[in-house]
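ok here's the first one, seq then struct tokens
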Amino acid sequence: MKRADIKVGFSCNNHCLFCVQGKKRDKFGDKELGEIKKEMDQAIKDCQGIVLTGGEPTIRPDILEIVGYAKKLGFQVIQIQSNGRMFAYQDFCEKAIKSGANEFSPALHGHISDLHDYLTTAKGSFDQTVKGIQNLKKLGQKVVTNTVITKSNYRHLPEIAKLLVSLGVDQYQFAFVHPLGSAYENFGSIVPRMSLIEPFIKRGLDIGIKKGKIVMTEAIPYCFMKNYEGFIAERIIPETKIFDYRKIVDDFTKARQNEGKAKGKNCQNCFYNKICEGPWREYPEKLGWAEFVHVKNNMKHAYSVLKIVRKSFNFLISEYKLSEHREKIQKILEILFYNFDDKWLSKNQKFDLSVSSQKDGLRFSYNNYCEKECFEKKLSDVFNLFENIFSTDMLEKLLSLMRFDGDKHQTTIGIEWLSGNKQPRIKIYFEELFRVYSNKKIFEKLNEICDLIGISFNHLGVKRKEKIGAISVDFISSSKVNVKVYFLHKKITEKDLRNKGEYSGLERSDASWKQFFKFLDQENKAFFYVTKRFSENSDLISLKLYKIYETIQIEDRFKESWQEIGKFLRAKKEKNMLKRVSNLKMISRNNKFELFPVIIAADNSLKGINVDLYFSFRPDNRVRQ
């Protein structure tokens, strides 16, 4: 989701020692209401969310009118970024919510009043901000807090984290002080050494992580975040357009990278150089680069895997005309492939990509094999890239529901970004269920999932004797979710489906469907899924057949599998699919990898027959020639 950051003015009832705005309150004051409305009129053209900030927006007498205008324009997310003091008045909170505000970002810089009030130079501000957070949570609001890291409070970040968790905040962030404005004037007493703050940041993050909170840091380079790289906010900060005083910054990420941050000589040799932004440039100008020690690349194979995935993605992005989404897709890759180990590829089909006969777009999946602990964080980070497009609350409830077993099953995230779509579709799969659970337990969980997403289990027509291999929940938007059920078969024929009445009114005369059945009859090391996809109204949307190659046995079979797949695609005259597969094979071989088939599937929907081919990579020295 792209958001607009509108600075409504620079007046403030705090005088923070680290204030990045400095003396702007004296120089510029506040914007006129008409100017703010014009900026919102401009922002709604390409932004879905809005952040009202300053200065302190809540002390404006017309702030509720501003919020109401944002709601009238149709912004999906309306955040008030604040010092939190006005939220101490419950009636103000209620009016702000009624006007349209649906996200609140108060700032807390200490765990006790002496520390917070010293930094804000406003006596009583700590008590008001804490009371404000309590009011907002009592009213059921989303609260995301910010703590600016300074010389005075960095040792107390764990205590601040404990307080924030006890207050029930949804998310907290530790942001390294930006040495501009008052922070630059007070540099010696405000800006700490990054090498000193590292252990306190990590302890502070751990407290939130253990409690299931969303936690992150800002403006702290990767070299100070070893083993916590997944919590660096810059990885997932959404595209932001800033409306400053008589100045518009169209892309804050690029402005931050090109003008705000800096890189030193050591950075050029760092493993994270391509994705790390470096520190605020004022920091090394004052304190030098000695602390910044480049991270060595101890993950050569992982990097080579990410390299081949990137190249394949770039090909598909160009092929399907998704270039405008390239940056967001690259962020998804960085999140999912963080700490990837190439050894996993010899034991498991860790991820796959696919091409399709009818669906033009990028489609891929990534599972939790060998990374059970951090995988859910990756899912949350991907969802957070699309703020309020997909429900992170629904995701958490779904994952919580399926934690009953200690993660014995496989969990997979699937991304489908079709040509012409502004946002992708995200799917969460619970797979390999038949290997670890009884049918009774699987049916219990399917029933609970249906209850959670509001689909009638009884309407699905799922028979108790049918063996369920997997279940997926399809996130289309924050308000629309589908479910898909995968039924396991060792062998399947057209007669089996007709006898069971699986078609349910779907088209069954298509020649491709019959061709696919002939393909299924061929002997190979594989098993089959028959799947039904149901809409939020519990209506059957499509019927799909999957032939799944046994990945652990594929090393001596992949050439034969490609031959039978090629024969099927040629018979179907799928020239585009054949061409794309050929190009991806070439990209793989040029990078010392082999492309191997994982699944071939035919989807019989009301729109006709669609054929999908799923494949993955393996280093060529792991494949028998």
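and now the second one, same deal
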Amino acid sequence: MDKPDTKNMTPTKFKGFTIYTSPELQKVLIDVFSSNTIMQKNVEALKTLIEKNYIVFGYSKKSLFSKIMNKVYPLRKTFDSECLFLPKANKIVIVANKVMDESNLKIYKPDLLVDIFLHEFSHFIAKNFRKEFSGVVYQSYFKFMAAVIAYLFGVKNFSYFKSRHLNLLVKLIIKREVKKLTIKKVMKLYSNNVTKHFISNSVYSKEEIEKRWKELQNALALYVTQGDSFVFVYSNIKQKSPYIHEAIVSGYKVLGLAPQYYANNILVQEYLFPSEVLANLWQGGKELSLVSPLIQFTSRKL
């Protein structure tokens, strides 16, 4: 049976859709976590988060939930299970698109479900534990942004650039995400503490640097202000300013992340959201030593 019977399930309402869950489904989710080598040591902590309703697993009317997912991840592939962090509700929602029970659990690729859960867990940590998130994301995001800035603005004397300016930029972008600083403040820091050093340290002309900087500003402003509609202008940005997208790709390459973990994403949000970089790393099997301590910490503190 592909369509679940939700008559005897408990509905949890969110803006735009409803999740139907049950104790039996919660047990299935625990079984999924128990079968995964990364998560099995954290089963008790995950049970706590499920019981406290921070992790919600169930069914939804596919048309409604898929509409939400298509807005957030418009270039995504559709899987048998999908996951989304809802900041206002402060919940990680996992939705099964087909019936899941103990008899057919392996058919639905538990490891894939764990991968997409870890992606959303990064955003969950960024919202709920600012200090801890800043500590775990800094090193990777610094390395990532070093490659991004070098590619985008042709910075050649990078040891000087990193020691003097990149540290400030990375720390402020992380601070922007966890403390919700305005885009205006972030762009001012990009400009004041970084871009004024590009001309003397770049292989590009002053005019090219200024052109690229203006195009990045415009792209980020559109991303922040247009929300769901940004997907319609993203293809134009990739065509007119391909280096904005390509710089992000170079950052992921430096971190050793395989293309399938970012190729279908909108590669702009990483300029503003370090949690997206960490999310893709975890989903791609990188830096997983951070996961267990954070899950354990989360279950104790929430």
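notes on #2: Strands lie at 10-14, 17-21, 55-58, 81-86, 91-96. Residues 130-285 form one domain.
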